[in-house]
Amino acid sequence: MPRTMLTDKRWEELLQIMKNTGRVYNKSEHRMTFEGILFRMRTGIPWRDLPEEFGEWSTVYR
Predict the structure, then answer these.
(1) Which of 9, 23, 31, 36 can bridge 60 by disulfide, Cβ–Cβ 3.0-4.6 Å?
(2) pLDDT digits over 1-13, tens only?
(3) Are 35 and 54 in contact (CB under 8 A)?
(4) Domain edges within the chain
(5) In degrees to the nearest 10, what's the CA dihedral of 8, 2, 42, 44?
């Protein structure tokens, strides 16, 4: 699994903010999707080269 950027505490804080919008509900894959976005921003790789551990690249992209 790729190294993640968010600590568990930071993820819980971010999840609460997202859930308060009423548009996001608690699903385990949300964290890996968000981590995939951060990974891509950090490394500058093309979306299609995103490691599979983050999920389908097109899902993370959307």
Answers:
(1) 36
(2) 467 788 889 999 9
(3) yes
(4) 8-17+28-51
(5) -150
